[in-house]
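look at this record:
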Amino acid sequence: MRQRGNLARSVGFALVLIWSLVPIYWSLKTSLETEANASAQNYVPLHPTLGNYAALLTRSGDLPGQIRRAALNMVIECGAATIVTVVLATLAAYAFARMKFRGSQTLFYAVLATMAFPAYTTLIPLYRIMSDFQLVNTYTGIVLVYVSGFLPLATWVLHNYFVNMPIGLEEAALIDGASRLRVLRYIVLPLAMPGIISVALITFLFAWAQFLFPLVLSTDSSTQPLTVVIAALQGRHVVPSTLLNAAGVLAIAVPALLALAFNRYIVNGLLAGSNR
């Protein structure tokens, strides 16, 4: 009976893996072919070429230029959202973990409670707020929306890191006259660096995967990220499918490489968030 259960789990895992990887493989295969060879529907690229990637990265023209601009937008938006989120989450988490004030626990759990609301329920209110402040089609508007969405999780993860850290060194520094900010900078941050790296990676990956919010908040190509631009170009007859697949592979490659290179930090960060 146990062997049947293990076999069923193995088969189920294999089916899920195939279901997830086949579209990625097909996109990679198409990106390595010319448009003529791609229309032949081969299961492997007959004459692999990196010409599509070279065209996207170096060739002039509306399509390559638009994709490069979208990739740059994505890096700017995700990078800025990550920096702001990490800074704010570090200050908030340390305050909740070490500084006791009236209503601190209530405020902390209120922040965590915001994670229970589906993100899409806030889409229309956020759009109206951004429109009133003229932040639609701006980097600032997209970054602020990202920060508001990722800050509670980042605060939770870092709070668990700070709570589990020994407090003796901090108390000794405070007795010697150091301020809270000085203790945070010179004692807490070096010890909590693995947690901060984890939060930065998780935030960046979540921001990179966003589609609906930038789709609504950036209707102009000057601020649209790569995910939105690829979807907008999909289905147009004037756009080669090989170039679109190459752009899709490049968009997938960044989070995939980060996840593989820093897998330990990401797992530790997620586990830290489940400790309490």
About this structure: Residues 122 and 149 are 10 Å apart (CA to CA). Residues 62-98 form the longest helix (37 residues). The two ends are 36 Å apart (CA to CA). DSSP finds 14 helices and no strands in the chain.
